[in-house]
Amino acid sequence: MPHQVIHDPTASTSVLRGHKIGVSWDPSGLLLNMSIPSLVGGISLRPYDLPGATVFAAAYGLLVPLLVYRLFDARWRSIVFIQATIFAIERPIMFSLRASAAVKNSEAPGLTKYFQAAFALGFLGLAHLVLNLARPVIVKATRGGPASGNDYLAVDQPRRRYWYRRGGDFLTVAHFVGIAFGIIGTVSLGSANETGPNHTHQVDRYVSCGIGLLLSGSVILALIWASITLPRIDHRAVRFLLVLSTLLTIPAIYRFVVMRHTTPDIHALTHQALNTGADKAAFYAVHLVPEWTVIFLVAIFNTKDICQMDFLGDRMWDETPKERERLEEWKRKRAAKKSGLELSTKPPHFTLIP
Questions:
Q1: What is the per-residue pLDDT for 212?
Q2: Strand ranges for the chain from DSSP E
Q3: Are the CB atoms for 172 and 260 separated by under 8 Å?
Q4: Residue 354: inside a domain, yes or no?
Q5: Tens digits of residue pLDDT in 100-119
Q6: C-beta of residue 242 within 8 angstroms of C-beta of residue 220
Q7: What pLDDT, on a 0 to 100 scale, did the predictor assign at position 189?
Q8: Where is this region: Disordered (predicted)?
Q9: DSSP 27
Q10: Residue 343 pLDDT > 90, yes or no?
């Protein structure tokens, strides 16, 4: 039996079995269209977004000098740390623009798209950051040598190291796919009479969010599995990375919950449009606080030392004894050249294990 739709000519929405749904009504009364996917965080409103955006602009702004200062210290400096610093520099700019829009109680469509893209891609980028921190921790634990807290020698596991790295490569590719879907899903705001595009944008947003959750969840599972099966794993690094990854699952789950909402008007002061005080409070507390906490922890704790990584993280191939020997030889030559000796620094050629 088809759903019974009751149209109220005085309202902007229709009612489906007693529940309001976001649909627009065709003048002929014969056609229903999917309404606009609600904006995550809603539109910028003075009572809610001015204090919220101001607080987060200041919170990130306080971290920026510390992060930039640490970049000049070789003990902290790494590609991952640079990535975190860039993220922290962008956030005060974004929240300042949101606060400015809230003061005017008006948000230009271009700003709306920028805000939605920034919120969709922020936790996704941080999940990839944590992946790049976890990779050297797990890979290092597969190498032979003294086991942590034990007297015996751990057996070198090049095959396992190979597959851990291929798993990391797969998740990196997934991360870029998630970025693409996130951009596509936020590039257009749509309108209430565009059923197809609205549905497509909704699906794109869910795919991007799902990939972000996949990244964090995969890192959590890999860390737990490695801590159980690899004797040489650094448990301090595992605990630190588990905290970061768990924090980043919170925004992803929040987005899955709220993205189901649609509205015929993104400016409506309704729960369906995610523009009520409770919706705003949940957005800032559940979506944005975990992201800021991750950057705060990266700024306070030396991730390069905790994860025992070099500037590039885990980038060199050492999956066989021969490859490790070539790598060590190249490192010795590079160190010798820095000392002023005239030695060749041609990088070693590494081959993948099929």
A1: 95
A2: 5-7, 14-16, 19-21, 23-25, 32-34, 36-37, 145-146, 153-154, 262-263
A3: no
A4: no
A5: 999 988 889 999 999 999 99
A6: yes
A7: 77
A8: 333-354
A9: T
A10: no
Greatest distance between any 2 Cα atoms in the chain = 85
Paired residues of 21 in beta bridges: 14
Give the model's confidence band at 146: pLDDT under 50 very low, under 70 low, under 90 confident, else very high: low
pLDDT band at 314 (very low <50, low <70, confident <90, very high): confident
Shared-domain flag, residues 165 and 190? yes
- Close Cβ partners of 119 (under 8 Å, ≥ 6 residues apart): 40, 41, 287
**Quick one: 44 and 14 in the same domain?**
no
pLDDT for 144 equals 67
End-to-end CA separation in angstroms for the chain: 57
Total count of domains within the chain: 2
d(CA 222, CA 282): 30
CATH number (domain holding residue 99): 1.20.1070
Domain-located, residue 159: yes
Query: Angle at CA 149, nearest 5°, toward 312 and 328?
Result: 35
| 8 Å CB contact between 323 and 156 | no
Own/partner long-range contacts of 160-165 (Cβ < 8 Å, ≥24 apart)? 161/318, 161/319, 162/319, 162/352, 162/353, 164/135, 164/138, 164/139, 164/222, 164/226, 165/135, 165/139, 165/314, 165/319
Please indicate whether residue 30 or residue 69 has the higher confidence score (pLDDT). 69
* Buried-state track 270-291, b at ≥16 Cβ within 10 A, e below 16: bbbbbbbeebbebbbebbbebb
Structure tokens at 273: 């449009």
Does pTM top 0.90 for this prediction? Answer: no
Question: Who contacts 336 (Cβ-Cβ below 8 Å, separation ≥6)?
Answer: 343
Q: Are strands 145-146 and 153-154 parallel, antiparallel or unpaired?
A: antiparallel
- Shared-domain flag, residues 29 and 100: no
Q: Which of 132-141, 199-208, 282-291 has the highest mean pLDDT?
A: 282-291
Task: Looking at the structure, tell me whether residues 73 and 204 fall in a common domain.
Answer: yes
Q: Which domain holds residue 26?
A: 5-34
Q: For residues 171 and 215, is the Cβ–Cβ distance under 8 A?
A: yes
The predicted model gives 253-272 an average pLDDT of 92
